[in-house]
Structures are given as C-alpha cells and as structure tokens.
Write a structure and sequence with these properties.
There is one protein chain. This protein is mostly helical. The chain has 7 helices and no strands.
Length: 194
C-alpha cells in the first residue's frame, strides 16, 4: 500500500532539457545526492538510536543509497568524469530544512517527511530522465532508480506513522508538499537532481 503522497507540481521541461544538455554535470550532482542520501539515513540512526523499530530499515536504505552512488560513480568513470573535491550546497534541501520545527519530537517528524518528499521528487525526476534516454543501459538504470526512490518515499512515511498519529502525519506531509511546490517553482533551473 502506498503511504506517501504525490508531489503537487511537476518538474518542468526546462529542467529536463538542462539535464539532457549537460548530462555529465547531472551525473556529478547525482553522485553527490546519493552520497548525501546515504549519510542522511545513517544520521537518523545516529540521532535516534532509541527508535529501534526503524533502525534496520534506515540501515538498509543507507546501503541501497550507497549502492546507487557506486553505480553512478561507475557510469562517471566510463565517461572519464571525476568526483568533485567537495559536495556543493543543495539549495532545494537547504530551503526545505530551513522550515523544520525546532522541537525535538516535531523536528523528528519533519525530517522524516522531508526525506519522503525529497525521495518522491527524486522518483519523478528519475522517471523523466529514464524516459528521455536513448541509451538502453541508462534507460534501465534510471528506471530502476525511479522505482527505488518511490519506495523510499513510502518508507519514510511508514516510519513516521510508527511514532505519530495518522492525521498529524498527513496534515504535516500535505503542508510540506505545499512548501516543496513553492521551492521547486522558484529554484534556478540547472543540470542537477534538485
């Protein structure tokens, strides 16, 4: 059963064109995003080790994101691309996180729901990238990522529902989807996942 909600504003054709016109830059950003996604899942484990119900799934998610990073890195190597020395700031993630509640319990809910929203946006964008591919291997790779990210969007809502009332989770998730729509519509279009 699907637990996450769909994003409210679709990604633009201009975003897809920017990605396809500079796919190497997109790959570099994609690699960075996978590293950050793995680290984010493990940061939940580090910050909330007492939430034992979700620790195994967080570890599994972190490993899966790291495997995605490895796959993107292999594609980069095949194209003669190197990783950047440092990971640049993600204006999308920064704008979302800046709107988190500050209370411990409320922030925990917000971080889970932001993770769901980001994974759901990633799924939508990976589907667009997959559909735009002429290379069969890249088509399959991004199709696999699309399904994986959609699953992760679901997982983080499932985690939230273990600790919070259903109405609270979905009211706040709907609020986050509104914020995400505002952010995505005001972001600079670039060859990046976000």
């Amino acid at each position: 059963m699907k637990l996450n909600l769909d994003i409210k504003v679709p990604s633009s054709d201009a975003w897809l064109k920017a990605v396809m016109d500079n796919f190497n830059a997109f790959l570099q950003d994609h690699a960075d995003c996978e590293r950050k996604a793995s680290a984010m899942a493990m940061s939940f484990v580090a910050k909330y080790p007492d939430r034992t119900e979700i620790v195994p799934e967080l570890i599994e998610t972190a490993i899966e994101e790291l495997e995605h990073f490895q796959s993107v890195y292999e594609i980069m190597q095949s194209r003669g691309l190197s990783l950047q020395h440092s990971i640049g700031e993600d204006p999308y993630a920064k704008a979302l996180v800046s709107q988190c509640h500050s209370g411990i319990r409320e922030r925990f809910l917000d971080r889970l729901l932001i993770a769901s929203v980001m994974e759901t946006r990633g799924a939508e964008r990976f589907k667009m990238v997959s559909d735009a591919q002429e290379d069969e291997d890249l088509f399959r790779f991004y199709k696999e990522l699309w399904t994986s990210e959609a699953k992760h969007g679901h997982i983080f809502v499932k985690m939230a529902l273990l600790y919070f009332e259903k109405d609270q989770v979905y009211d706040r998730l709907n609020w986050w989807l509104d914020r995400e729509s505002e952010i995505i519509e005001n972001l600079e279009v670039r060859a990046a996942l976000h």
